[in-house]
Amino acid sequence: MANIDQLRTGQPIPTTRSNQTKVGSTSSDAPSTAAAASSPRVKNDAVSLSAQGKAVGQIHQQLAAEPSFDSAKVAEIKQAIADGSYKVDADKLASNMTKFEDELRGI
């Protein structure tokens, strides 16, 4: 059994598989060991996304394509700071900080 600490460190967990045959099976039921050793195992894994999963993927792509900030607003604020006209609304700042902390508690 894997230790939980191994999962947290991101280290791969060694796994082993046994090729045991069912109890009571005959040698004709199981492939020969020479044939099993010489032929590679083929896995055919498949993933299917629901319509909701696809929609989330599309939204993610749209958001990734958009800029993460409003460059015009940033330029405006930089100019206001440079010319000394930028004023901080302390009440609004405190309110937004409290709101942000409340959102973090909900996570």
TrEMBL record:
| InterPro entries membership | Anti-sigma-28_factor_FlgM_sf (IPR035890), FlgM (IPR007412), FlgM_C (IPR031316)
Where does the record place the Anti-sigma-28 factor FlgM C-terminal domain? 45-98
- In this chain, composition skew of type Low complexity spans 25-40
Q: Can you tell which superkingdom this protein's organism belongs to? A: Bacteria
Where does the record place the region Disordered?
Answer: 1-46
Give a GO biological-process term: bacterial-type flagellum organization
A Pfam family assignment: FlgM
Q: Which UniProt keywords apply?
A: Bacterial flagellum biogenesis, Cell projection, Cilium, Flagellum, Repressor, Transcription, Transcription regulation
Polar residues bias: start-end ranges: 1-24
Q: Which family does it belong to?
A: Belongs to the FlgM family.
Please identify the protein, giving its name as recorded.
Answer: Negative regulator of flagellin synthesis
Q: Which organism is it from?
A: Photobacterium sanguinicancri
Q: Which gene encodes it?
A: flgM
